[in-house]
């Protein structure tokens, strides 16, 4: 049994021809998708935007970026710099992990139980530490 509940609405189905004609009007007139949708009784402006993405020629909804050659080179240089910095950071993290492990092993072999206290003392002593 198909009974409609009080709050349900009937689904509206639009034909392909209707959708493409709405999209063409949006693209040729330059009006907003919401305005053209209201004109034809389409309830939601996002519905028309979805049709534009699906059936449009690409003139609406896409961002076209125009750059000068210097800007492209600068972007490439910045990406390369980020890549090198990420590699350097990774190397530094590995070095730090090795240093921590070495300090713990050295303290264990020397019989020092308070590694944090040893680090504080060693950092202040002129003969020990970095």
Written overview of the protein:
The radius of gyration is 33 Å and the shape is elongated. The longest helix has 42 residues, at 69-110. The protein folds into two domains: 16-55; 69-124. Helix 1 crosses helix 3. The chain is an all-alpha fold. 8% of the residues are buried. Helices cover 65% and strands 0% of the residues. The protein has helices at residues 16-29, 33-39, 45-55, 69-110, 115-124. It is built from five helices and no strands. The N and C termini lie far apart (82 Å).
Identify the overall geometry. Answer: elongated
Backbone structural class: mainly alpha
Unreliable residue runs: none
Average residue pLDDT: 83
- What is the helix fraction of residues, given as a range? 55-70%
- Report, as a whole number of angstroms, the end-to-end distance: 82 Å
Count of separate structural domains? 2
Q: Compute the number of helices.
A: 5
Order of helices and strands: HHHHH
Instruction: Tell me about the largest β-sheet.
Output: none
Radius of gyration (CA) equals 33 Å
Secondary structure: number of strands: 0
Beta-strand percent range: under 5%
List the helices and strands and how they pair.
Layout: H1 16-29, H2 33-39, H3 45-55, H4 69-110, H5 115-124
Helix pairs in contact: 1-3, 2-3
Give descriptors for this structure:
single chain, 130 residues, mainly alpha, 0% strand
Short description:
With 130 residues, the chain is mainly alpha-helical. The protein has five helices and no strands. The mean pLDDT is 83.
């Amino acid at each position: 049994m198909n009974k409609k509940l009080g709050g349900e609405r009937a689904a509206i189905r639009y034909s392909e021809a209707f959708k493409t004609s709405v999209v063409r009007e949006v693209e040729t007139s330059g009006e907003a998708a919401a305005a053209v949708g209201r004109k034809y009784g389409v309830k939601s402006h996002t519905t028309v935007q979805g049709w534009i993405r699906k059936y449009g020629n690409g003139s609406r909804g896409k961002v076209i970026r125009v750059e000068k050659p210097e800007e492209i080179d600068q972007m490439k240089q910045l990406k390369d710099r980020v890549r090198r910095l990420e590699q350097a950071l990774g190397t530094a993290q590995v070095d730090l992990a090795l240093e921590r492990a070495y300090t713990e092993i050295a303290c264990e072999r020397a019989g020092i139980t308070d590694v944090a206290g040893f680090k504080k003392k060693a950092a202040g002593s002129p003969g020990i530490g970095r």
